[in-house]
C-alpha cells in the first residue's frame, strides 16, 4: 500500500499528463467519429456571446460593403416590383421553392470557419427561436449547411465545407442523383459523387438539392459543373461543382423548418420495424 | 497570491483573447493561421509547479477547442507540449538548465530561438495530425505545419518583443 502511494506521489506529473491526454484524445476521437453530440461546441453561452460581440465590431467595419449589397438588392427588388413578369428569374428569399415564409427563420452568421477539414459556422439564433438539429441552412445564393447543435440562443452548423457533410443533390436538367461531399482542398468547390454514367453532364450545368433528403426542399441552388471525371474504383462520375456561394463571406442566412420531416421519419421507421 | 501567479493568469486570458479575436480570423492563403496563444506554455516560469502548467495548458487548449469547434485537438497538443517542455529545455539550453536563470522574454539568442522553434513545431504537428486524422493528408499536414509554424514563430517573437518589460 505504502509503495502504491509512493508510486503515485513520485509519478504525479506523469499520471496527470496521461489523464489529461486521455481526456483530450477521447474528445478528439469522439468529434471525428460522430456527426453530432459534440461535448465541446461553440454553441454555448460563453463563446456564443464572445463571437456575437466580435461580429458586432466586424459588422460596423463592413457597413460600406453591406450598404452596397443592400442597394443592389433594393434595385433588384424594385425591378421585380415594376416588371412583374421577371419573377421567374430570381426566387424571392421569403418564398423559397414552395416553402412558406412561416417555415423560415432568418438568422445571422456570427462565426465562420473555412480553413480546416471540418468546418463549422455559428449562428445567433437557437432553440428559443425554434431551431432544431438537422434543419437546413441556406441563403439567397444557395445552400450553406445543416444545423448540428443548438443552445437556447445560438446554434452551430456543419458547413458544406466539412468532410463529414453529405447532402443529396441532383442535376437540374435531369433527375440523376449523387451525394455532395467536400475533399478538403478549395473553399470554392465541392464534389458530387456517385452520379451514374448514364447522366449527360456538361460544363456549366446547374446542380440543385435533390428531393431525397428531408432536410432541404428540392431544387435549391448549389453550384455549376466545373469538371467531370470517372472514379476508377467505382466507375461512377465525380463532378467538381463550383459553388454559387462564397463560403468565406457569409452574412444573413435562412434556416428551413421542414414540416414533413417528422411525418417522413415516422413513416420510414415504421417500415424498418416491420 | 504572489505576483507570478497573477502575471500568469493575466497572460492566459490576454493571449486567449488576442488569439480568438485577431489571429483566428487571419487566413493567409486560405488555410494558414498562426497560433501564438501557446506563448503561455512557452513563457511559463521555468522552475514553477509542473502539475500546474500541465493542468492550465489543458484548460487553455480546451477553451481554444470550444471556440474553434474542434473537439479536443488543441487540448491534446497543449498538454503534450506542456509535458515535454522540460525535455525541450534540456535540448536547447543544455543539461544544467535548472541552475541557470533562464529568462525567455529577453533578447533573442540562438538557444532561446531553438527552444521556441522546437516547441512550436511539436505543438503544430500534433495539432494538424489530429485535425486531419487520416494518412492520405500527410503532405497537407506537413505543409500546414511548416507554414503555420513560420507564422506562429514570427508573431510570437513580435509579441515577446512588445511585452518585454525593460529595454536596454
Structural overview:
The complex is a heterodimer of chains A (274) and B (168). Helices cover 30% and strands 28% of the residues of chain A. Chain A is α+β, with helices and mostly antiparallel strands. Chain A has helices at residues 2-10, 12-33, 45-61, 63-82, 261-273; strands at residues 104-112, 118-123, 136-138, 143-150, 155-162, 167-171, 177-181, 189-195, 206-209, 221-230, 237-243, 252-256. Chain A contains 5 helices and 12 strands. The mean pLDDT of chain A is 80. By secondary structure, chain B is mostly helical. Chain B contains 6 helices and no strands. Chain B has helices at 3-21, 39-43, 50-68, 73-93, 110-132, 138-163. Chain B is globular. The two termini of chain B are 30 Å apart.
Which helices and strands appear, and what pairs or packs with what?
The complex is a heterodimer of chains A (274) and B (168).
Chain A: H1 2-10, H2 12-33, H3 45-61, H4 63-82, E1 104-112, E2 118-123, E3 136-138, E4 143-150, E5 155-162, E6 167-171, E7 177-181, E8 189-195, E9 206-209, E10 221-230, E11 237-243, E12 252-256, H5 261-273
Antiparallel strand pairs in A: 1-2, 1-12, 2-5, 3-4, 3-12, 4-5, 6-7, 6-9, 7-8, 8-11, 9-10, 10-11
Chain B: H1 3-21, H2 39-43, H3 50-68, H4 73-93, H5 110-132, H6 138-163
Amino acid at each position: 500500500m505504502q509503495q502504491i502511494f509512493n508510486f503515485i506521489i513520485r509519478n504525479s506529473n506523469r499520471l496527470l499528463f496521461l489523464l489529461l491526454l486521455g481526456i483530450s484524445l477521447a474528445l478528439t476521437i469522439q468529434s471525428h467519429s460522430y456527426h453530432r453530440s459534440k461535448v465541446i461546441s461553440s454553441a454555448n453561452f460563453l463563446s456564443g456571446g464572445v463571437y456575437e460581440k466580435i461580429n458586432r465590431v466586424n459588422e460596423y467595419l463592413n457597413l460600406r460593403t453591406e450598404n452596397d449589397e443592400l442597394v443592389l438588392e433594393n434595385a433588384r427588388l424594385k425591378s421585380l416590383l415594376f416588371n412583374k413578369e421577371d419573377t421567374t428569374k430570381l426566387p424571392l428569399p421569403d418564398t423559397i421553392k414552395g416553402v412558406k415564409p412561416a417555415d423560415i427563420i432568418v438568422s445571422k452568421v456570427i462565426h465562420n470557419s473555412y480553413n480546416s477539414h471540418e468546418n463549422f459556422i455559428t449562428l445567433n439564433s437557437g432553440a428559443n427561436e425554434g431551431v432544431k438539429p438537422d434543419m437546413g441552412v441556406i441563403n439567397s445564393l444557395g445552400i450553406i449547411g445543416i444545423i448540428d447543435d443548438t443552445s437556447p440562443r445560438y446554434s452551430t452548423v456543419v458547413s458544406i465545407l466539412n468532410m463529414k457533410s453529405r447532402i443529396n443533390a441532383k442535376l437540374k436538367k435531369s433527375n440523376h442523383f449523387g451525394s455532395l461531399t467536400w475533399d478538403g482542398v478549395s473553399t470554392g468547390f465541392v464534389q458530387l459523387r456517385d452520379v451514374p454514367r448514364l447522366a449527360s453532364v456538361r460544363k456549366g450545368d446547374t446542380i440543385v438539392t435533390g428531393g431525397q433528403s428531408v432536410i432541404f426542399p428540392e431544387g435549391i441552388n448549389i453550384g455549376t459543373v466545373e469538371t467531370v471525371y470517372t472514379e476508377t474504383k467505382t466507375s461512377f462520375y465525380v463532378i467538381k461543382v463550383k459553388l454559387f456561394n462564397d463560403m468565406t463571406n457569409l452574412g444573413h442566412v435562412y434556416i428551413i423548418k421542414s414540416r414533413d420531416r417528422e411525418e417522413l421519419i415516422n413513416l420510414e421507421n415504421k417500415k424498418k420495424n416491420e | 497570491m504572489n505576483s507570478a501567479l497573477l502575471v500568469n493568469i493575466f497572460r492566459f486570458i490576454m493571449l486567449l483573447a488576442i488569439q480568438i479575436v485577431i489571429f483566428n480570423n487571419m487566413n493567409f492563403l486560405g488555410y494558414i493561421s498562426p497560433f501564438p496563444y501557446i506563448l503561455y506554455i512557452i513563457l511559463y516560469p521555468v522552475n514553477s509547479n509542473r502539475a500546474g502548467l500541465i493542468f492550465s495548458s489543458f484548460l487553455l487548449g480546451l477553451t481554444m477547442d470550444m471556440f474553434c469547434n474542434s473537439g479536443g485537438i488543441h487540448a491534446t497538443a497543449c498538454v503534450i507540449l506542456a509535458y515535454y517542455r522540460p525535455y525541450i529545455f534540456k535540448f536547447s539550453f543544455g543539461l544544467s538548465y535548472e541552475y541557470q536563470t533562464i529568462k525567455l522574454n529577453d533578447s533573442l539568442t540562438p538557444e532561446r530561438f531553438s527552444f521556441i522553434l522546437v516547441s512550436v513545431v511539436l505543438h503544430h504537428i500534433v495539432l494538424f495530425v489530429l485535425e486531419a486524422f487520416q494518412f492520405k493528408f500527410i503532405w497537407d499536414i506537413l505543409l500546414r505545419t511548416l507554414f503555420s509554424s513560420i507564422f506562429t514563430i514570427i508573431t510570437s517573437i513580435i509579441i515577446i518583443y512588445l511585452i518585454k518589460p525593460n529595454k536596454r
